[in-house]
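Saturday, quiet lab. Running sequence design on the structure tokens for the scaffold JK sent over.
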């Protein structure tokens, strides 16, 4: 099978996002909606199970879908260590979120941590929303989390960023992250080359490069897209504490109901 985008970085992923998780605190938000919706839940692009596992521990039946075999393998290892009852609440499927058919419906579907922005063409995004619509129960809820594209960053057209370092527990080394980003203003995409660099136990310098494209989507564009695909947008939050959308909040969280 073709390598999926995140296969190359799955081993770093949980270390890399540790700080982000502390700041964003999205898990209680999804638990609340899952309990409110009542039925089964589908998480698109579930990755290593960061959100999926805490939901399953709350007795929520959840299916995690992701295109990356390696990300799912990391999730599977964590799930294997859970008690049987919690394991029974979880199902994992390796599928592309822009073309999946699971032959069942869910009362809540969500796609968190900006994963939807990995769908870089209009066609892929439209197809994904068609799939979401087909997999939701009548009046089911879809929650979509994206970042706010900041004009002052886009205006730079290219940007070098130091992203800090993290401790790779498995290899007992500190890994430094930096990235080179080029914005394609016409396509509303960015291309990022991310460099992971460390010195191994033998004293050799190591570099791992990961490149990806990412779409940036503006608030009303997303609202129109959701409406076009049969959703009514009920809320637009700017953070997971339910503060209203604000350009400077950095996040945009759409809560949409299937019409
Ligand atoms: C930033 S990670 C988010 C993982 C997880 N949702 C979280 O919050 O920690 C993005 C995830 O999107 C997945 N992904 C990217 N494109 C995808 C696609 N077309 N279909 C399914 N999953 C995809 C990647 O494999 C990766 O696991």
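Result came back. Writing it out in full:
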């Amino acid at each position: 099978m073709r390598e999926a985008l995140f296969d190359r970085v799955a081993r770093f992923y949980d270390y890399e996002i540790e700080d982000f998780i502390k700041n964003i605190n999205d898990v209680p938000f999804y638990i609340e909606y899952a309990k409110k919706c009542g039925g089964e839940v589908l998480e698109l692009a579930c990755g290593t199970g960061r959100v999926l596992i805490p939901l399953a521990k709350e007795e929520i039946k959840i299916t995690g879908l992701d295109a990356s075999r390696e990300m799912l393998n990391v999730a599977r290892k964590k799930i294997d260590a859970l008690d049987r009852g919690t394991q029974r609440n979880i199902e994992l499927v390796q599928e592309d979120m822009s073309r999946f058919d699971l032959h069942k419906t869910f009362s809540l579907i969500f796609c968190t941590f900006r994963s939807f922005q990995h769908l870089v063409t209009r066609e892929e995004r439209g197809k994904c929303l068609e799939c979401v619509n087909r997999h939701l129960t009548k009046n089911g809820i879809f929650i979509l989390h994206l970042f706010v594209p900041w004009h002052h960053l886009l205006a730079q057209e290219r940007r070098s960023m130091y992203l800090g370092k993290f401790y790779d527990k498995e290899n007992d080394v500190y890994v430094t992250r930096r990235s080179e980003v080029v914005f394609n203003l016409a396509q509303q995409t960015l291309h990022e080359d991310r460099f992971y660099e460390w010195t191994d136990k033998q004293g050799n310098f190591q570099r791992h490069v990961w490149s990806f494209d990412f779409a940036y989507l503006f608030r009303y564009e997303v609202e129109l897209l959701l409406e076009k695909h049969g959703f009514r947008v009920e809320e637009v939050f700017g953070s997971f504490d339910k503060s209203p959308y604000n350009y400077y909040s950095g996040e945009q969280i759409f809560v949409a109901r299937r019409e």
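Notes for JK: Residues 4-6, 45-47, 50-51, 66-68, 71, 96-98, 112-113, 115, 118-119 surround S-adenosylmethionine (CB under 6 Å). The chain has two domains: 5-148+218-258, 151-215. Ask whether to fix the surface positions before the next round.
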